[in-house]
Design a protein that fits this description.
By secondary structure, this protein is mainly beta. It has a single domain, classed as LURP1-related (Porin, Beta Barrel). Helix content is 12%, strand content 42%. A 12-stranded antiparallel β-barrel has the order 1-2-3-4-5-6-7-8-9-10-11-12. A hairpin with a 5-residue loop joins strand 4 and strand 5. It starts with a strand and ends with a helix.
């Protein structure tokens, strides 16, 4: 299954649209207004919160984002490296070992779970907003959307002041 995650050009809270291959909405990403930690929620179309993503409030050199499930339990920590030249991100605390091969902001990255490829992320080239193509099994899609949002949050935090 392929989905397209497109940050909205104009969104007060930093929301994103998640579309299927037919360009129909399949999930929503809602951002919280005036959030220092860039809180975002991955929701189904009815607005039920599936995951919460937020950045660590204060970062010295290594940036972190946290993924929470619908019951507000922290299920994963996503972090980068101090000098992140290769755009490497590490997913810690998740029930399985998750790794991203390839540069996240390159043309294509693979997502591995316990050494097996479970998804592919491709960056879409747009002028004013970030957009990604995510291909994975249907049951993995919501968590992987949260993972893409977490990495995008980390990158935004490092490159933007607000």
């Amino acid at each position: 299954m392929k989905v397209y995650i497109k940050n909205k050009f104009w969104s007060i809270g930093g929301g994103s649209a998640v579309l299927d291959e037919n360009k129909q909405p399949i999930y929503k990403v809602k951002g919280r207004v005036f959030s220092i930690t860039r809180v975002k929620y991955v929701c189904d179309l009815e607005g039920k919160k599936l995951f919460k993503v937020r950045n660590k409030w204060f970062n010295w050199f290594v940036h972190r984002a946290y993924i929470y499930d619908a019951n507000k339990n922290k299920i994963a920590t996503v972090k980068d490296k101090w000098f992140n030249v290769n755009q490497e991100y590490f997913i810690l605390g998740y029930k399985d070992e998750i790794k991203i091969n390839g540069k996240f902001f390159g043309l294509s990255s693979q997502i591995l779970r316990n050494g097996e490829i479970i998804g592919t992320i491709k960056r879409q080239f747009t002028v004013f907003k970030d957009a990604f193509e995510l291909e994975a099994n249907h049951e993995d899609i919501p968590f992987l959307i949260a993972l893409v949002i977490a990495i995008d949050n980390i990158t935004d935090k490092k490159t933007k002041l607000l």
